[in-house]
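If you are new to this repository, start here. Below is one unmodified record pulled from the training split, so you can see the exact layout before writing a loader.
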Amino acid sequence: MAHLLQELTLLTAASAFAAAQVPAPKLPEPYHTKSASNAPVVVKRPDGAQLKLPAGFSIEEFASGFERPRYMIYGPSGEILLSDSARRGRVYSLVDANRNNRIEEGEKKELIANLDRPFGLAIWKDYLYIAEATSVKRYKYDSKTQSLAAGEEIIPLAGHGDGHWTRTLLFDPKGEKLYLSVGSRSNVSPGENEIRASITRYNPDGTGREFVATGTRNPIGMAWYPGTTTLWAAVQERDGLGDDLVPDYFTSIREGGFYGWPYSYIGPHEEPRNKGLRPDLVAKTIVPDVVLQAHVAVLDSRFYTGKSFPARYRGGAFLALHGSWNRSERVGYSVVFIPFANGKPAGPVEDFLTGFMTDPKSKEVWGRPVGLLVMNDGSLLLSDDGGNKLWRIAYKN
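And here is the target side for that same chain:
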């Protein structure tokens, strides 16, 4: 199986015109193994446990004291904005005032509290947009005083807070449209509301909804390829078909494209639990650009736009893998890198940060990667909702 998974790590789309022109990969048969229930147990960092990076890189704790740190963006004044996705969640502003690469007492400010599992964040003009599980709101935001005015709901999502509850926000490069990703309610059940398992876009005030892509089971990490208007998304796929099905993926998003859920996956591989229901959609399912391992639970993607890492990393994609529960032997709990050239994947998926999982056969892990942020100095920030802290990855020349 290992050689098959290696072959699956890179799939570059051969045509931009029709999914049928893109070769679908060979995948294991459904139910090739029993479906496992193997959730992790998060423990304190074991004595001697070390995080591993390529030569020349280092990692240090940047901030701590959170409940469930998740998504990160920069604010207008260089502050880092962080969503803490507890049931009564918060959004924080972090300012490293003394520039010692660590958030200390007095450098963390709570902007707002009592939110319903906040995740996605976006800045547009003098507004901060916050995506909760059941609502997208925007607030007038004064970044100099780090204060919010009363918010207004612009996209109601009442009744859609169950299942995949994270919502990612992203403005287009011109700041004209707001993109929103919403995951499915169920694993593979047809008939859900049209907003589920989709990427949509809106005017900045929440009007004018348009569907960009559908059939994306949980399109949680969205990013623009640098210098272009090409949207990429990291997507969590379904469970229950065995250890090596269905692979998560990272792909460029085609306008109006259908990506399979819940009738098929990774091209026209028909979902056996919905067999025969929508052969028309099975036939048009797009093959994604990059196929990851099954069940790694990809949670964020960022293209590297900094200058402090070696040249081979520039323009490539970093992905945070939260880690598996539906696999007999644990996978994920890491950050991976995908090299790019001329706007396309140019090599296999590489391990970049590992070590949170010391033994894939053990239930115990001591960290779970979630969010990524390329910092202004070129370092890479990682949120970890296992250890409930932020980590800063730097390169030393």
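Two things worth knowing about this chain: The first strand starts at residue 41 and ends at 42. The domain at 2-395 is CATH 2.120.10.30 (Neuraminidase).
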